From TrEMBL:
Main location class: cytoplasm
Gene of this entry: rlmB
Protein name as annotated: 23S rRNA (guanosine-2'-O-)-methyltransferase RlmB
Functional description taken from the UniProt entry: Specifically methylates the ribose of guanosine 2251 in 23S rRNA.
Protein location: Cytoplasm
GO molecular function: RNA binding; rRNA (guanosine-2'-O-)-methyltransferase activity
Homology family: Belongs to the class IV-like SAM-binding methyltransferase superfamily. RNA methyltransferase TrmH family. RlmB subfamily.
Domain RNA 2-O ribose methyltransferase substrate binding: 6-82
Any one of the GO CC terms: cytosol
Gene3D superfamilies: 3.30.1330.30, 3.40.1280.10
NCBIfam families linked to this entry: rRNA_methyl_3
Length: 247
């Protein structure tokens, strides 16, 4: 059992049904839910050949480790999205767009960052092993399926990894609310790693020093900074906008 991972919630389980149905060991569903969403979900699960087990809400909550399961949870095997960051970068035929999270430890924030990384077409999310949230069921639920599509690499030494990215001519753009240049002055069309900092203190000093540029998101009101997942969205979508108009 321990080599299995658990996904819960409609989005997270549906994405796995779509992307890697063979990795699903079993799906537990709440048979008392007879609404259209559940019916559609069960149809998809049957089409994908998943083993369906009717269970009560409490049993599903036990498996999920949360009551926010919406009546579905799945036991799945791990599916590596990419073997290594190097493999992933070697296989790209477009300029890489990477999201680096330095110290994001809240699973809800990590989930939201993965979701927006998927939406904006980032190729991977990178975080330091000793200073980050791991990929757990809560992250997968909040990510709404993006934990299944965006490779998440936890690295031993973030500064070293950023150095290696630089050697690949990837431009390291850090973000901080006190940076004098705004992200709208930054060219994101080339190979780019966007670095965001921790919920409280922002990027660590060494990470900050390793960046090639620092940019800020203009703040028009009274608050000084945005939530890290919101800031990730603003930056990644600016990169997507520039890349789309560069054609
Ligand atoms: C809650 S903020 C931390 C704020 C902290 N004062 C700092 O020094 O960045 C978490 C992360 O979101 C990003 N962020 C939030 N607001 C930002 C802004 N206005 N400009 C640039 N980055 C921002 C940065 O990466 C920041 O490290």
């Amino acid at each position: 059992m321990s080599q299995h991972k658990v996904l819960f919630g409609f989005h997270a389980v549906t994405v796995r049904l779509k992307t890697a149905p063979a990795s699903i060991v079993e799906v537990l569903f709440d048979g008392t839910r007879r609404d259209a969403r559940m019916k559609q979900f069960l149809e998809r699960a049957r089409e994908a050949g998943a083993r369906l087990i009717e269970a009560d809400s409490l049993r599903i909550a036990k498996l999920a480790g949360s009551h926010g399961h919406q009546g579905v949870a799945a036991r799945v095997t791990e599916v590596p999205l990419a073997h290594s960051l190097d493999d992933l970068l070697d296989g790209l035929n477009v300029p890489p767009l990477l999201l680096v999270l330095d110290g994001v430890t809240d699973p809800h924030n990590l989930g939201a960052c993965l979701r927006v990384a998927d939406g904006a077409g980032a190729h991977a999310v990178i975080a330091p092993k000793d200073h980050a949230a791991g990929l757990n069921a809560t992250v997968a639920k909040v990510a709404s399926g993006a934990a299944e599509t965006v490779p998440y690499f936890m690295v031993t030494n973030l500064a070293r990894t950023l150095g290696e990215l630089k050697e690949r001519s990837i431009w390291i753009v850090g973000t901080s609310d006190d940076a004098p240049r705004t992200l709208y002055q930054q060219d994101f069309t080339g190979p780019t790693a966007l670095v965001l900092g921790a919920e409280g203190p922002g990027m660590r000093q060494l990470t900050r020093k390793t960046c090639d540029e620092l940019v800020s998101i203009p703040m028009q009101g009274a608050v000084e900074s945005l939530n890290v997942s919101v800031a990730s969205g603003v930056c990644l979508y600016e990169a997507l906008r520039q890349r789309s108009s560069a054609g």
